[in-house]
Specification:
Helix content: 10-25%
Strand order of the largest sheet: 2-3-1-4
Structural class: alpha+beta
Radius of gyration: 12 Å
Strand content: 35-45%
Largest sheet: 4 strands, mixed
Shape: elongated
Number of strands: 4
Order of helices and strands: EHEEEH
Length: 70
Amino acid sequence: MESTFTLLATDRQAQILFNNYCVKLMEFKGDKESYPENEIIYPWRVTLRHKEELGKLRGVYSFEKLVSII
């Protein structure tokens, strides 16, 4: 199953998600002037492939909340 949602994460957290989970697409939606400062939390649009048992993921998730779900 695939879900598209907004992730609130630092650049480093987004990279961890991209490298370790089945991310199909990740798009940076933050302020390009301050990118990439590792301590600032940015919005990312993410398309994630995941187990069907989780159901459709929608809305806005923090990195910690998303990792605890998947």
